[in-house]
Predict the structure.
Amino acid sequence: MALKHHIDDKVRFDQQVDNSRAYVLPFIEKTKPLGPGINVLEVGTAEGGVLRPFTDRGCQCLGVDLADARVENAKVLMADEYKAGKVDFICQNIYDEAFISRFKNNFDVIILKDVIEHVPGQEQFIPHLKTFLRPGGQIFFGFPPWYMPFGGHQQLCRKKWASVIPWYHILPTPLYKGILKMAGEDKVVIDELLEIKDTRITIERFERIVKASGLQVLNKQHYLINPIYKYKFGLQPRKQLAPITWLPYLRDFVTTCVYYTVG
């Protein structure tokens, strides 16, 4: 059963703002001072709410997304900041030469919040992000590890029972697809969930790609209960127990969200 934020742009925007102000910005600020003179790029900006706390701090912000409708919606939801020139939103692929030539070495902070798990070719994509960093720049990643109970984003299912069963997304693709069809999910939902299965990412694989990209982990935080669950399910955020974070692979199954800054 799709949650309200899946179908209500304003609810989703407000959740993005609150979560960014309470968790994302403070986490980034542990390794990067934020304020006037700091350029921020959000890749996969959607409604743009993650950027509002950064514009409030005086940062100059840009949101980029592949969905034109979401970019236009972000301009409406962030109308005051957009009209004041504090933020801009564009629909473009960051692999485009026009984007590269315009924004090469331009940003102090790049944000990917619940995005990297949707991106194909992560081994090429993550090092490509370095193209847009200024010297000393940092990249923030926040994502749900694939093997966590709902790492397949099955909460997007419209049928309640299919949306609340944990871990069945890790079944072989034909079996997973068969269950979704049996649940009566439409083709759009099934295709989206199978795409996420194709682009899935674990903590271990993410850290390997970061290292191979010549990037260094500057800070990380693993969560037993994802901060965004406060808005979705009324659950209070809870950091993962330290001993669990030291256990490769096992931690993926019981960690609902990870935050990283790399540079």
